[in-house]
Amino acid sequence: MTLTLLFVVVAGLAAVPGLHRLLVGPTLTDRVIGLDLLFAVAIVLSLSAALLSQRTVFLDVAIGLAVVGFVATLAWARLIQIQTEGESE
Length: 89
Prior knowledge:
By secondary structure, the protein is mainly α. The chain has helices at 3-24, 28-53, 57-88.
């Protein structure tokens, strides 16, 4: 088993708790953490695909996922903040 393949398997296993956190919760903050973990795993898998296939298009996919994941996290955190401010008033 090559090191890259082992890295892909470990990244796939890391996606399981992230998916569980995203779907089950129990809080909205846990769901944001799950989403971040899934985006990180997707970035790792894209980088691994770039290494295995020697194609640079997967690097573009990884960069796009990183940007989308960052913006999604900011947007979701802002929605949680607005919701908690509304409940405290």
